[in-house]
């Protein structure tokens, strides 16, 4: 049975920022070889970047999604618009004179990747309040990519009482740019890549200094780490960071591009259905593993039915968003 929402809650998830194009280069290893050139398999452009991944993954799971961003009036922008139209994603944008952001991602035979991101939007660029507010007012949850031009949304998110999330990617725990998003969001996701042995320190810092209720550190093939506000407060009574092992993907891993975005979408899908945080983590791991089975960025999306099967949920939840 579909959940009964307030008529103003038109969207389950509003995703703000993070549309672009990725150029995928498949290499033998993530290193610069000797000489000044090397032959590689055919290079392809894909719809890419983090906001696209979260929005499309949530859409594939049956959530009602709205996506907002800037795009350039260029070939890359047209590629993005064509792919969103093909997927049936509800997307609205404003034109940026700087063009559409691009990335070049190196991918090795094990599916690991390294990304060069051109973050071309100028620092002073902002989404106008008149553009985003009508959508924000009708959203149950807001996910903000760390793209800077959406940072002014937080006061309105707080005043409207909307829960928010963000993905800090490879934050080192110090950079103030990422820190702004870390302390302003209710759900905080980040990669293990730059924190590793400081993982728990960084997670506790976010919970101590910000508004977050949950912090998740994604660690690829090593699974993920979870710390909730309640567990943080109970540190002296045995509460601490919990590790969750990775979920085996349904097919061989070929490309990890977009796995983190898929994790976020799986987690949000379960959370919006009222599931326990451990189930949300399991859903995130299953969705992230599934994303690694497709070549290129954002090409393999898990469906609600597949996610329910992977997580051992009842079949009645297969399909569109189901509340608890």
From TrEMBL:
One of its GO terms (molecular function) is kinase activity. Residues 13-145, 201-299 form the Carbohydrate kinase PfkB domain. Pfam families: PfkB (PF00294). Keywords: Kinase, Transferase. It comes from the Bacteria. Gene3D superfamilies: 3.40.1190.20. This is Carbohydrate kinase.
